[in-house]
Amino acid sequence: MDDASNQTHALVNIYLVDAPGDWDQVYLDIQRVEVFVESGNSAGTQEWIPLDYLPLSNIVNVSALVNDSRLILGRGELPLGKISKVKLVFGDGQYLVQDNEARSLQFADQEDKAYEHEVNYPLEGGMSYDLIMDIDLSRSVGINPSDENSFLFTPFMRVFEKTNNTKITGEVSPLDAKPYVYAVLGEDTLATLTDSLGNFTFIGLEAGEYQVYIEPRAPYLDSLTTVFTKLDSTSQMEPIILQIPQNPEE
């Protein structure tokens, strides 16, 4: 931004990350992202502002966004004031892959094709803001009760600012365990998967005492570890080596 723009605008970037569900892959048709800005000028204007949509394709494999991988949806210079809503606009091209077979994924409610999430982010001149949209696929996707071969999509997300850098990272082996990893704080549960190297990351966390639960594929045994987090810090877990149950002696 030039000097004049620094005084009257802020740069906003919006990213997408994923908390995966029990499917091989999930593809979402993302058309654009918009923000609702309540301007701080004397006119007190309020308006939806679309941000430049940056991905190469509208069809996004969101289940690949693990271990702090993120997809930038859009960025733009916004007038000063505050962002009170973020809107993610979808198309009709959603589908998922299960057991190597593509399955239909339809909106349970057509109004969710323009999904809105309330936020509260004041904007200051010359500042840059990174907003993260974390979609929880395990809560967003369910079997269609009228057709067991198709699925329904109801977006379930959390939105947070990247300035909260509190995170938990870890590594799980063997690689063929391919576990789900859960971070539990009170009644709140976040989920993720490991990447191809066995690494995982939870971002945008509150400070507190988390129970990190590793749920691998058979025949590996589950694992549970307590992790303490602090604001603006990374809690690096010790490498987790999953065990296979020993057969009882005959």
TrEMBL record:
InterPro entries: DUF4382 (IPR025491). Residues 10-155 form the DUF4382 domain. SUPFAM superfamilies: Hypothetical protein PA1324. Pfam families: DUF4382 (PF14321). This is DUF4382 domain-containing protein.
